Amino acid sequence: xxxxKVTVQLRNGYHVNSNTPADExxxxxxxxxxxxxxxxxxxxxxxxxxxxxxxxxKPVSVFTGDFDIVSRFKAPPNSxxxxxxxxxxxxxxxxxxxxxxxxxxxxxxxxxHIQ
Length: 115
Description:
Immunoglobulin-like
């Protein structure tokens, strides 16, 4: 089993919806990984904060500031030994209390050494 973290840093005054937003129209934060060379066991997000914003009548589940997303992987029996790169995608929508930027997906690359 192998675990790694991706650190997300948000600018002051911005938030992203958590991976479990309360409303269907809100774009969740999602980290996904390609299936090779390792298999994804799970992706663990931090505990979200519930914030009140004028656009919603109920609290909104968000992440703010700097936080880590921890992913755990396992090597299948046929995994190639040696150096490799895990490739993933982080999808998010950054917002302030009054406006949201367009949703964005960025590539995440993590070098690994499979033994």
